[in-house]
Design brief:
This protein is mostly helical. It contains five helices and no strands. Helix 1 crosses helix 3. Keywords: Heme, Iron, Metal-binding, Transport.
Length: 129
């Protein structure tokens, strides 16, 4: 079922719920998310609704810094590649349009930045020991 484009909070919820439903079951990155989030999935999903609503719909409902909770995760390029793959396929399976394309671009950029920062802090810890 492809909907034209991402235009409402209901579209954001569909994207986030579908994406994280796949993430939770994924063999590579599912265990990392499930261990980190544990029983707090409803709160995490609510935060993700607000995050993507702010990014894509320019309705400023999210405040905070998305990177710190990810800073100490034991992840590498393969984990981010899988995240991007699942995210892109999820967007493509649900939406077509300018904001759908922006969502994919933002996802790739965010994954690249997170990986860079995680590796930076990991390297920094090695040099300070």
């Amino acid at each position: 079922m492809v909907i034209l484009d991402i235009t409402t909070i209901e579209d954001i919820k569909l994207l986030v719920n579908t994406f994280y439903g796949k993430i939770q079951k994924d063999d590579l990155i599912g265990p990392i998310f499930n261990e980190k989030i544990q029983g707090r999935w409803p709160e995490h999903l609510e935060t993700m609704y607000k995050f993507w609503q702010t990014i894509l719909l320019e309705q400023h409902t999210y405040s905070g810094s998305p990177f710190p909770p990810h800073k100490h995760l034991s992840v590498n390029q393969s984990h981010f590649n899988r995240w991007i793959e699942i995210f892109t396929k999820t967007v493509d399976s649900l939406f077509i349009g300018i904001l759908a394309e922006e969502a994919k671009m933002r996802g790739v950029n965010m994954a690249s930045m997170f990986l860079y920062k995680i590796e930076y802090f990991r390297d920094l810890q090695k040099t300070t020991k």
